[in-house]
Amino acid sequence: MDFIEILSYGFIQRALLAGTLIAVLCSVLGVFLVLRRLSLIGDGLAHVTFGGTAIALSLKLYSASALLVSLPVVLLSSLGILKLTEKARLSGDSAIGIVSALGISAGIILASAGGGYNVDLLSYLFGNILSITSQEVGIAAVLFCVVMLLLSLFFNDLLAIAFDEELARVSGIRTATINAVLVLLTALSVVLAMKLVGIMLISSLLILPAVSALQLARSFKSCVVLAALQGGCSVVAGIFLSFATNLPTSAMIVLLNLAFFGLAFLARRCLQPKSSS
Amino acid sequence: MPDEIVRTERLCCSYRTGRVLEDISISVEAGDYVGIVGPNGSGKSTLVRALMGLSAISDGAASLFGVPCSRFNAWGRIGYLPQSLHLLNPIFPATVAETVGLGLLSLKRFPRRLTAFDRTKVDAILEQLDICDIRSKLIGELSGGQQQRVLLARALVNNPDLLILDEPTAALDPEMRERFYSLMGEINRSRQVTVLLVTHDTGAIGKYASKMLYLDKRMLFYGNFEEFCRSTDMSALFGEYSQHLMCHRH
């Protein structure tokens, strides 16, 4: 079966389109999250997404409807993480841990009360990009445009805060607002990525393209572009490879990202000038 | 009469562990170069952080350019240089030019975009501080002295009226430290920039600063350098010999 034939399938077209959009989003956001040492927020919010999805499935809502039920739950939880760090004097990882535990335990209770783990819930855990619907592609496209617009508007503010939060405050940047924007955009992307790589692997899509780009980037802008390229390419290549090898797409995408990271790491080691000492 | 840039009245700051600053009343005028000195934990950094709203004021009042610090928003008039080595994330992928450009955001409104004209300002300050040759290098790849110059360029690029420097020479060797104080003196004179410089280096800063503020949670001395050298309080604190060494300008 050649590429053209594979591309003629509707489910492949939808997967390629939605997957690339979501991967680019996650990769760009990941650069800011990794630099802010908030990499694991994706993991925490993914666990909350599990809870949100369990709520949706217990209400007999599936696909796009499940996405729309999870969205407010995850958005509120992301703000909860921020509030916990501010008001309860917790570090970011502790706050993420608390919200994450709450999300996963709520999900387990709801799933158990709803008659146990069914196929739908498992598809959210491990992702099933090939089953993405046209409606979900539409939601992904709209949210992609919203998130990218907000990212471009707040780009310099986000960069300044990633560099140093106090210096950003002394530059007149409303750091609390920008932090809220960052976690809300992350929450949106996590909900979108749920169908792509699954709840278990979302954080890899946020972290791996960013850390690979950090190995090679020679400026902040090039770092963002490299991360987006890796995210997009890993999804496209992952879909084709999984189709050809009949292996799970989500795991293939993550493994490709790991391979890209390994290559970037090696390339940096080779390109780095050796110290004279 | 010169403009009053900084004013504090009976300023107090507290952390959960207790009071760290008590009853500080100072007035800094345009063009002053104030060396803020004192032992570790004496509240030097807390004072400058409180002025910028980074530490809470528990009692008293403080103003910048005549505006209470709690309502101050003319951030474009301030350049701030924190302790460089505490700041830098070694993997941060920004170039020197990108880092310095961040200093211009205080002059921008939402959405804060930098223009081609802004880039000429960045180039001009890099040239002035003699670091043009590293403009495309990543900040994490630079030496401590170079990083510190870059952060100084970031603080100066918006052409501030007040420059606040919090232990900027902590990572520098004695020769670089002298050059830094001298550079600050030159900027203070040539651009009429008011400078607040926090340092442990009581002896070295005395050669350049026009005023000295000696803190040890309370204000033990505030006045010009000549008064500092004649102060019997300071003689009692340091001993006459140490005071003589500090005040002996070569």
TrEMBL record, chain A:
One of its GO terms (cellular component) is ATP-binding cassette (ABC) transporter complex. The chain crosses the membrane at residues 15-35, 40-59, 65-84, 96-117, 137-163, 175-193, 199-217, 224-244, 250-267. InterPro entries: ABC_BtuC-like, ABC_TroCD. One of its GO terms (biological process) is response to zinc ion. Keywords: Membrane, Transmembrane, Transmembrane helix, Transport. Belongs to the ABC-3 integral membrane protein family. This is Metal ABC transporter permease. It comes from Oryzomonas japonica.
UniProtKB/TrEMBL annotation, chain B:
Residues 6-242 form the ABC transporter domain. The keyword Transit peptide does not apply. It holds the Pfam family ABC_tran. Gene3D superfamilies: P-loop containing nucleotide triphosphate hydrolases (3.40.50.300). SMART domains: AAA (SM00382). GO terms for molecular function: ATP binding; ATP hydrolysis activity. Transmembrane segments: none annotated. InterPro entries: AAA+_ATPase (IPR003593), ABC_transporter-like_ATP-bd (IPR003439), ABC_transporter-like_CS (IPR017871), Metal_Ion_Import_ABC (IPR050153), P-loop_NTPase (IPR027417). Keywords: ATP-binding, Nucleotide-binding, Transport. Belongs to the ABC transporter superfamily. This is Metal ABC transporter ATP-binding protein. It comes from Oryzomonas japonica.
